[in-house]
Amino acid sequence: MAYRPIGDPKHATANAQSVPMDNIELNTRYDAGTYSYAPPSGSPPPPQEDRDMKDGGERDSKAAFRSSEVPASTLALTAARLNGKEVSDYGSRLTETLLLSPTIFPLIFAALMGRFFRHLGVYLAERGTTLGRLEQLVGCTSVFSALERQFCLRSWSFVGLLSIIVWLLSPVGGQSALRLLGQEQHDVTSTGTVRYMDPMTIENSVIDGASDANSGRSTYTSIFLAALLSSSKYEATPMDLWGNVKLPIYRYLENSTSDEWKEITNNTNANVTYASLVGVPVAGPPSDGYSTFNIKARQFDITCSSNKLMDQNQTDFGNMTATWKLRPVNKSKHCGTVVDCAIPDCDGYPCGILSKSMANSEDEDKFSVANCSISFDYFESGVRCNRSSCAVYKMKKLDLLSDGYTQDLDDFTRNNFLSNEMSIMPTLDNYNVGSASARGSTNMEKWMMDPTNFIGARYDNVDLYELSPEVFAERLTILYNTFFQSTYGTLALGGHLPSNLTQTGLMVGTSYGSNITFNGTEANIVQETKPIYKTNWKWFTALLVCSLVLLAAAYAGLILKYITLAPDIIGYASSLTLLNPYVPTPTGGTTLHGLERAAILHDLPVRIGDVCANEPVGAIAFAKADNGRVARLDRRRYYI
């Protein structure tokens, strides 16, 4: 194949400007005689096609199987097998593998699907097809290239649309593997028994008389002071330092709603005020999951109408044996003329009491005096636990004289428990200390003045009269309940309750009358199952379809490669040298695949340039770039 020069070569330069442009096409001829190929002498070489197809087939086979060692379909089926099974190390490794899928899957997809379209194009070219279809197949290497050929060829064919859909499976496959496997937990609802200390345990309080109070002094003193000294951390928490459940002050909830149950909107907030620093012992909350149950307990509540500074002669303080005293407003007739008598004359609640505390004044005769009243009430509280962390979330008031608490016992409470507590608690930490009134306020007084800063020796008195009656009443309520709860059921307060307590309901003491009864209450329990794998079946289907399409394309390409006799020359740069008069062709070159031809002509210098540089109109061709036979292209020159 060759181009015949236009006009007389000898006068090409002189006549270059006179050649009419309309005659360019007519004057350019294909000369069949100028180029010819003669086969080499001797016997023909052995058939090349079998060897090439065998070698190429083996390479394709190895590449296909190497790319399919861990196909996405296997990952999909493995993930499906894990559905409903507990989370394991094997599943974790599979999950990590799936995280790589958005990167690996498109690479494998591009490699196998691109080769499939190429082999299909060569197969159809061998049997005869249109150039447009061949271009759509061979040039279809991505979604963009598939769309590009649809637009540029101006032909929206079924093959083109199908190739676009196929290439869209690549990102779908990668993303579906990423979303294939998840985890979930189910809630299992059940009921169980939780036990709490019987409210009637107050009958065994050691302050029922003077003798028992002295015997139990070491016990309730240590419990009370431990709770008091740790209050900076546990005062606002729903459980005490030993894990017992604390009850809020009901008075603050009473008017929150007209319903019988008073809800606590935020039982973890520091704004919730608890009535005691010591809670109710509870046994049996499940160590895993959530539980709700109800408990019952009795507690005191104190309100004050006034808190002011007064002279000693107005207070009837009595002997200066202490810095703080609690006394009934109305003394019992049994007190006679005893000034420090604490037996109240109270037939029902509320009972009036007076708090008298030495003030830190230059005048030693000044006292802080609060006029208060005390009540005793019975409550049922709803408790919600997250594992072993519990908090009261609702309360309602019950009839005081119920569940075994009789009028006689209530009379005993008012005449004995009230009077003994008013006598013992104010001197708890300076009992029998000489000249106690000269050694400064007690820890209780300092705590009421400032619960956040009361620890340490100061040897002075606090000015409780500076507190508002409401604040003073709140803090006195907390102290009063804390001390009273330190005098009964003490064996159960420190936690570490017996493991069989939920079955027996009885905590056996070491001495007569020290057994503690625990009442049973039904608990609603919600527990989460262990995390299990959950297969997303929609993404599973998408991944399986993409994988099967890819697998089918890989094997189809392999089969097409075996049954196609024509060498793969489409789309390779080396194929431009095939039967090209401007590039020398190796003997037997028509049987070579594109890459084999490129390997042979690896160092051949080539150029796309003007092969008719000496003619008035140039011709662009792919040619060997040596000996000046091909010139560079020029924008100012015409080319056919």
From TrEMBL:
<protein>
    <submittedName>
        <fullName>Uncharacterized protein</fullName>
    </submittedName>
</protein>
<feature type="transmembrane region" description="Helical">
    <location>
        <begin position="539"/>
        <end position="560"/>
    </location>
</feature>
<feature type="compositionally biased region" description="Basic and acidic residues">
    <location>
        <begin position="48"/>
        <end position="63"/>
    </location>
</feature>
<keyword id="KW-0812">Transmembrane</keyword>
<keyword id="KW-0472">Membrane</keyword>
<keyword id="KW-1133">Transmembrane helix</keyword>
<feature type="region of interest" description="Disordered">
    <location>
        <begin position="1"/>
        <end position="69"/>
    </location>
</feature>
